[in-house]
Design goal:
Helix content is 82%, strand content 0%. By secondary structure, it is mainly alpha-helical. The radius of gyration is 13 Å and the shape is globular.
């Protein structure tokens, strides 16, 4: 599988849509929505190693912000 990434402009569009969607949800549903989104994207990725790497990348990003 090739290492495809989104162009920065598309990534910004995704970020905006995600932020708007999260803002429209009750806070109590945000975690469930993010879990469902992660699983939907993982299913479409079709490569468990890439999904696991993305989980670790996100975890490291949170750790970097918290430090």
């Amino acid at each position: 599988m090739s290492d495809m990434t989104l162009p920065f402009a598309d990534l910004e569009r995704v970020y905006e849509h995600l932020a708007e969607t999260l803002d429209a949800l009750p806070e109590s549903q945000e975690r469930l929505f993010l879990a469902q989104l992660a699983l939907a994207l993982a299913h479409r990725t079709g490569d468990v190693a890439r999904v696991m790497a993305a989980i670790e990348e996100a975890r490291r990003g949170i750790a970097d912000v918290s430090a």
